[in-house]
Automatic annotation (TrEMBL):
Keywords: Membrane, Transmembrane, Transmembrane helix
InterPro entries documented for this protein: DUF1405
Database matches in Pfam families: DUF1405
Protein name (database record): Uncharacterized membrane protein YpjA
Regions crossing the membrane: 21-38, 50-71, 83-101, 107-126, 138-154, 174-193
Organism field: Thermanaeromonas toyohensis ToBE
Length: 203
């Protein structure tokens, strides 16, 4: 069992049954995420909606990527899923870790650990983990990685300069949330520059 899980999770997470399971989980998680952001979206002008629900947007992109992976290997599908999947993996890792930091800080400041927040903490850890599992196998050109990083930086700008960031547990968490987001975006650029680029792997 251990060897099977090691092979599945570390060496080849592209098994159809695994992709289907993740697709269902991420689809349902996305629906709950948009429900979580419902009131904030109502209070946010619609042009900024794409920048507001960071986590459910990340899982939605990943859900679409999984669907494309299951769809086939046509040239048009392959090119779309490469770019979309890269953005999805980067966003999953960034906003998964970002939420873990924000929730953890909330608990450290004395808040009680409720079931809802514990599930949010674990689900966002799962977001980051699945993003990394797939990213390590994902081929991309350097320019694609830098373009993805530019999107992450733009999101940071809209969130913390223009002020359309997700609602936080405490008002005084804004500096921590902003610094965490910017640091994670910076790590993405370092990752892109340090990784050996390979595009000859078929999925």
């Amino acid at each position: 069992m251990f060897q099977f899980l090691k092979y599945l999770l570390w060496y080849n997470p592209f098994q159809p049954f695994f992709l289907k399971g993740l697709l269902i989980i991420n689809f349902l998680g996305s629906l709950y995420g948009y429900y979580w952001y419902y009131e904030q979206l109502l209070a946010t002008p619609w042009p900024w909606w794409i920048f507001t629900p960071d986590s459910p947007l990340s899982t939605s992109l990943f859900t679409l990527t999984l669907a494309l992976l299951l769809l086939g290997k046509g040239a048009s599908v392959k090119s779309v899923k490469e770019v979309l999947g890269l953005l999805a993996c980067a966003a999953l890792i960034k906003y998964g870790l970002w939420a873990v930091v924000v929730i953890g800080d909330y608990w450290i400041r004395g808040a009680s650990v409720t079931l809802v927040e514990a599930l949010l903490f674990l689900s966002h850890l799962g977001m980051a983990a699945q993003g990394y599992l797939f990213l390590r196998h994902w081929p991309f050109y350097l320019w694609q990685g830098l373009l993805t990083g530019a999107w992450l930086i733009l999101n940071d700008y809209v969130d913390y300069i223009l002020g359309w960031h997700p609602y936080l547990f405490r008002d005084d968490q804004v500096p921590l949330a902003a610094v965490t987001a910017l640091v994670l975006s910076g790590f993405w650029f370092l990752y892109c520059l340090g990784r050996k680029i390979a595009r000859n792997t078929e999925y």
